[in-house]
Amino acid sequence: MNNRRNDSDDLVLLGIAIAVIVVCLFVWKFSKAVSLDFHAGGRLLFGMIIGIAILCAGWWQENNYGSILTVKNVLPASLAAVWLGFWPALQQWGSVGLSFPGEVQDVEWWANGFTRWGVLLIIVLGGYSYVHRTRHGY
Fold first, then answer.
1. Got the DSSP string for 2-53?
2. What is the pTM for the complete model shown?
């Protein structure tokens, strides 16, 4: 009896290990396809998945409950999540010259911190001001 339980535990661990390997392989292939390292590609992919999940949650809430969480209301948050996922990718794509670990990396103007934060503010503040201006008077 005890032996069967250990066998099923081993199968669960094997399944988890295979799932982790498949996910890592997918992230690695995605990273190579967009010319990024594993970390930046993973962050980009994770940001896109979170953005899609936020949109799906808004769509589900809108269709089932019709509440305040509609697709229109969560769109700025979804775009912000995707934009935050792009930050490490922008740093790599916009790098100028060689860089070494621990050093501040020189980047193009469109990849520096001011531009990234500015676009994030435009997405969030502009998006939610648009949502606020176009809402129905209740």
1. HHHHHHHHHHHHHHHHHHHHHHHHHHHHHHHHTT--HHHHHHHHHHHHHHHH
2. 0.81
Displacement of CA 35 from its chain's centroid (Å): 17
52, two tokens: 């899609």
* Positive or negative: CA dihedral 69, 70, 75, 81: positive
* Residue 131 tokens, joined: 């949502």
Provide the domain limits for residue 46: 34-133
Note whether 22 and 78 are same-domain residues: no
Q: 46-90 pLDDT, tens per residue?
A: 999 999 999 999 999 988 887 778 899 999 999 999 999 999 999
Is 26 found in the same domain as 53?
no
Residue 43 and residue 89 in one domain: yes
CB 71 within 8 A of CB 58: yes
User: Is 138 contained in some domain?
Assistant: no
